[in-house]
Fold this sequence. Notes:
Elements: E1 5-11, H1 18-31, E2 37-43, H2 51-61, E3 65-69, H3 76-86, E4 91-94, H4 106-115, E5 121-126, H5 133-150, E6 162-165, H6 166-173, H7 182-189, E7 193-198, H8 212-225, H9 229-233
Parallel strand pairs: 1-2, 1-4, 2-3, 5-7
Antiparallel strand pairs: 4-6, 5-6
Helix pairs in contact: 5-8
Amino acid sequence: MNIQYSIVIPVYKSGAWIDELVSRIGAVMEREALGRFELILVNDCSPDTVTWPAIKRNAEKHPWVRGFDLLYNVGQFRAIMCGLHQARGPFVLTMDDDLQHIPEEIPKLILAMQEDEDILCVIGQFETKQHNVFRNMGSLLYQKIINRVYGNPTNVKTTGFRIIRKELVEAILSCRTAKPQISPLLFSMTRKIKNIPVQHAPRAQGRSGYSVSLLVSTTFENIINASTFPLRLF
């Protein structure tokens, strides 16, 4: 099977809307005739009885859906790494499972990548974020800290909604770190990254897994585990 696009989604307690997520991704990919694709759903050991059965049900129904069930909870970033290892296409997309990353915006990422052969990664930049005020403030502070630590260009914003060429995916996978942080790894390997504007949807169901404490922890791990900043500071 000649897969062109691999869409990787880490899944956690999302069984109630997995059917809608899969249906919308399939519809937009087939409607836009974007090429052969696969959808890789990685269940991060969801502590419920509906998420993994929903993934299995969709994998049985759609030949382009592949499901992986992790033995224990490893966190969003390592679940993404699992999906990257399984991706077979020359272009790999990552997105969240909560429908705030809008499936209908996927063609924008693909088109932007096709238009510039020199670009290795295209990241969706949300025109208006639909998080609560504390999450938005935390994300802004996180962005400023990461830009300072990694020397990232301030005009490029990081989100989890992106498309990456396979050669850059393979470079990321070569980094054997216990707590991988995808965005810092991207910027540590290349500056051939650009943003395109995309829409961001309000969260329809459930609650975000990102609390203030988790955002602080993630920022700390980005600095400690994926940069040389502490060593240079010392």
